[in-house]
Amino acid sequence: QVQLAESGGGLVQAGGSLRLSCAASGTIPNPHVMGWYRQAPGKQRELVATITFGDSTKYADSVKGRCTISRDKVKNTVDLQMDSLKPEDTAVYYCSLKLFIPRVSDYWGQGTQVTVAS
Fold first, then answer.
1. What does the buried/exposed string (b/e) look like for 72-83 if buried means 16 or more CB atoms within 10 Å of the residue's CB?
2. Average pLDDT of 87-108?
3. Which pLDDT value is given to residue 30?
4. Which residues contact 115 (CB under 8 A, 6 or more apart)?
5. SS3 at position 59
């Protein structure tokens, strides 16, 4: 059973930084994609950044240049370094894991709140 556990959210002033971490446990076959999504109140969940096992990354336009996703393949962790935070970055951030074997399956963490004060 795959489980994702996030940490690192909190309250920060605009312009500040936060680092989110996510640890995946269970059997995680390759290939797979790990990433971060976020959901602000009244809005749909949206992609923030993803990283493949081959270290290919993808970022939402809104965070490019301000966020960096990285992973530790041995520990099965994925981090999101967020800099120059803006009030519009306020949301619940979810760690995600997409598997392709034996079938396409999506897993989510419980979410961690990020609040950016102006």
1. eeeebbbbbbbe
2. 96
3. 86
4. 10, 11, 12, 90
5. strand
